[in-house]
Write a structure and sequence with these properties.
The complex is a heterodimer of chains A (about 400) and B (about 325). Chain A is α/β, with parallel strands linked by helices. Chain A is about 35% helix and about 5% strand. In chain B, about 35% of the residues lie in helices and about 15% in strands. In chain B, strands 3-2-4-5-7-6-12 form a 7-stranded mixed sheet, with helices on both faces. The chains are: A alpha/beta (about 400), B alpha/beta (about 325). The interface between A and B is large, with 45 and 45 residues. The structure holds thiamine diphosphate. Thiamine diphosphate (TPP) binds next to strand 2 of chain A.
Chain lengths: ~400, ~325
């Protein structure tokens, strides 16, 4: 055979690497307000275009446009903004706490705050969230005490997880927040199962789950999509496309030739793609998906198009694989700034109020930090009696664990 | 009392629990309308409706993952993995999730689910329908592992598993689904109806997890076995003329160490049987436990008779299977030591 037509392996690569100019020229977005809002009982087959478009409400001047504008009162908008400000201040402090050696690890949600905060506000506190590790905004917008989050991060003696989990792996059943796993995407079929159980029980609660663009390549995501579609589970599956897994860009997860929302098309699931930095658009699509699920019309896949503003975690240095100023050039802006702009443009907010809110958040975080640190930071001796490691493996401790616990006593 | 095969007893356990508790539901591949490839869920869909007994997509990760979510919600799902050989796509969900959710959430969330799967060889199933993966579960903190050997035990243990508040792996020895196969291939299989343990109450009863059963009392040695191998152990004992005490472990984790200790202290000899591959098999754990707890009572080295460390060979399964002659050789070695 002639080598003239030799095959060549394609390895996806991003447009820009360190030293290059950030390049988003290949992307075109619909104008804010341009996307119509379908009825919630629309058939998924009529939503194909939504999988490739982008639902946007806010323009870059802060005007809310089009059918998706959720028409929230100013008080709700201010609450959303304050939760986002608090989430960012919290992340900032915890990032530095890790650098100061108070804990081993931290993960910020910088740039993605609109997603978890808006969605938390739409969902009922009784609904169950199955998050990944970058949705701290869910807890914050459910008014979960940030000092408890810090206790967890510090694995101190008041850590609700009793020192067993890596920092940021919160759990709070009473706040509808499922225990976070370190194994990517495992929560997605679990959320579907929870939603199926709710439907089975004739309940009114729905489930929602989050995973990153990188994690959509896991089999669990596809298992979950199959089950959600087959049994029309009342669940919202959120793909947070922040463009990166750790160092690999979203093309490595299959985002080069299609969108992540388009995964829904193949499964016959309602797919929506939304500007994840647009608080109003995220709020509106979540309302739509939640109404649809509550009306027993089945699941929705939402791709939130956003940008991971910070490093993957405190163990990561993104300057080694992407242009340093890429985040600042992100064409869809900063979610906090955009909501702030909107509130100012409707005369419900001002720069002074914004500064005051930021200062109040920093103070609130500082105060919580002081309180948490009184209970110790990672490595404080005696935070958890060693014997406690044998508890909760099973409901009742079997003989072999009792025996191993005794071995520890000597 | 009715006479039941193990399949009928398992079906009766599910029926009993579904009638008692609306939180119990069951699903898996071909489990719904058809009643499962081994018929363990037969008639349940007709009786309880398709929401309580239904077919699942061929995706073990999804079956396990959604069952975990259901259990977290507060239901008591019983899932069927069509063959234990196909549990590997579900393994991460079982090991990293089901087993650890109570622990990692400090008791905030729990997973009361039961994972049923037929296991073991002797049916010409080849390497993809014959495996015994029990050690892959007993090695995992947070899971319980149960294996019945008779219809009576199968029902009582399955009911206990369903009522247990922790995830339970329930391995069903498919070679004895329809009769107590004793490893003597040259003799006709005796149906369950000829075996006293096929007398199964129609209603609710439980056999506690973590309690072994002494199926034959004996003075000269202790044989530790579970599943199909219990019946093979009895046949080997009969053929050998050695007065062995045969213990059916029933639960592998947590194992009934007291019964093992008392028996080996009495007999001073121990032979361990399983069909699974040998190296790092559950027999290694049993041997270690016997050594730790009974060393000064032992009069001979502990013997293991197991499957070989090869995939289960289709045409050579009788060479692979630990049949009575191989077991008897080990018993004699133990007696002569
Ligand atoms: C099953 C599994 N594989 C690999 C990892 C290691 N890991 C942790 S986070 C991560 C990247 C995930 O990226 P993405 O899903 O896009 O989420 P993001 O961090 O961007 O929010 C990887 C590879 C893991 N935790 N679990």
């Amino acid at each position: 055979m002639s080598r003239k037509n030799a095959l060549d392996l394609h390895i996806p690569a991003p447009n820009a690497r360190p030293g290059d100019k950030p390049d988003f020229s290949g992307w075109t977005f619909p104008e804010p307000g341009d996307t119509p809002r379908p009825d919630i009982d629309v058939s998924p087959s009529e939503l194909r275009d939504y999988a490739y478009g982008l639902i946007r409400v806010l323009d870059m001047e802060g005007n809310a446009l089009g059918a998706w504008a959720p028409h929230l009162d100013a008080e709700t908008l201010r609450r959303g903004l304050k939760y986002m400000i608090l989430t960012r201040a919290f992340d900032d402090r915890m990032y530095r706490a890790q650098r100061q050696g108070k804990t081993s690890f931290y993960m910020q949600s910088f740039g993605e705050e609109a997603i978890s905060v808006a969605q938390s506000m739409v969902l009922s506190p009784e609904d169950m969230c199955f998050p990944s590790y970058r949705q701290q905004g869910l807890l914050i917008a459910r008014d979960y005490p940030i000092v408890e989050m810090m206790n967890q991060i510090y694995s101190n003696k008041r850590d609700p997880m009793r020192g067993r989990q890596l920092p940021v792996m919160y759990s709070s059943k009473k706040d509808g927040f499922f225990t976070i796993s370190g194994n990517l995407a495992t929560q997605v079929p679990q959320a579907v199962g929870w939603a199926m159980a709710s439907a089975y029980s004739g309940d009114v609660r729905i489930a929602a789950t989050w995973l990153g663009d990188g994690s959509t390549a896991e089999g669990d995501f596809h298992a979950a999509m199959t089950f959600a579609a087959v049994y029309r589970a009342p669940v919202i599956i959120n793909v947070v496309n922040n463009q990166y897994a750790i160092s690999s860009f979203q093309g490595i997860a299959g985002g080069e030739n299609t969108t992540f929302a388009a995964r829904g098309v193949g499964y016959g699931m309602a797919p929506l793609r939304v500007d994840g930095n647009d608080f109003l658009a995220v709020y509106a699509v979540t309302q739509w998906a939640a109404e649809r699920a509550r009306a027993n019309l089945g699941p929705t896949l939402i791709e939130h198009f956003t940008y991971r503003g910070g490093p993957h975690s405190t163990s990561d240095d993104p300057s080694r694989y992407r242009p340093a100023d890429e985040g600042r050039s992100w064409p869809l802006g900063d979610p906090l700034e955009r909501l702030k702009q909107h509130l100012i443009s409707i005369g419900e907010w001002s720069d002074e109020q914004h500064r005051a809110a930021q200062e109040a958040a920093v103070e609130q975080v500082r105060e919580a930090g002081r309180e948490a640190e009184k209970e110790g930071v990672l490595g404080t001796e005696g935070a958890h009696p060693a014997q406690s490691m044998f508890e909760d493996v099973y409901k009742e401790m079997p003989w072999h664990l009792q025996e191993q616990r005794k071995q520890l006593e000597v | 009392m009715a006479t039941m095969t193990m399949i009928q007893a398992l079906n009766s356990a599910l029926d009993t629990m579904m009638a008692r508790d609306s939180r119990v539901l069951t699903f898996g591949e071909d489990v719904g309308y058809f009643g499962g490839v081994f018929k363990v869920t037969e008639h349940l869909q007709q009786k309880y409706g398709p929401k309580r007994c239904f077919d699942a997509p061929i995706n073990e990760c999804g079956i396990a993952g959604t069952a975990i979510g259901m259990a977290v919600y507060g239901l008591r799902p019983v899932i069927e993995i069509q063959f234990a050989d196909y549990m590997y796509p579900a393994y991460d969900q079982l090991v990293s999730e089901a087993a650890r959710i109570r622990y990692r959430s400090a008791n905030d969330f729990t997973v009361p689910m039961t994972v049923r799967m037929p296991y073991g060889g002797g049916i010409y199933g080849g390497q993809t329908h014959s495996q015994s993966p029990e050690a892959l579960f007993t090695h995992v903190a947070g899971l319980k592992t149960v294996i019945p050997a008779t219809p009576y035990d199968a029902k009582g243990l399955l009911i206990s598993a369903i009522e247990d508040d922790d995830p339970v792996i329930f391995l069903e020895p498919k070679r004895v689904y329809n009769g107590p196969f004793d490893g003597r291939r040259d003799r006709p299989v005796i149906p369950w109806s000829k075996h006293p343990a096929s007398e199964v109450p129609e209603g609710y009863y439980k056999i506690p997890l973590g309690k072994a059963n002494i199926v034959r009392e004996g003075a000269e040695m202790t044989i530790l076995a579970y599943g199909t191998m219990v019946h093979v152990a009895l046949a080997a004992t009969e053929d050998s003329g050695i007065d062995a005490e045969v213990i059916d472990l029933r639960t592998l984790l947590p194992v009934d160490i007291e019964t093992i200790k008392a028996s080996v202290a009495k007999t001073g000899r121990c032979v361990i049987l399983h069909e699974a591959t040998r190296t790092s098999g559950y027999g290694a754990e049993l041997a270690a436990l016997v050594q730790e707890h009974c060393f000064y009572h032992l009069e001979a080295p502990i013997e293991r008779v197991t499957g070989f460390d090869t995939p289960y060979p289709h045409a050579l399964e009788w060479e692979y299977f630990p049949t009575p002659p191989r077991i008897i050789k080990a018993m004699r070695r133990a007696m002569e030591a």
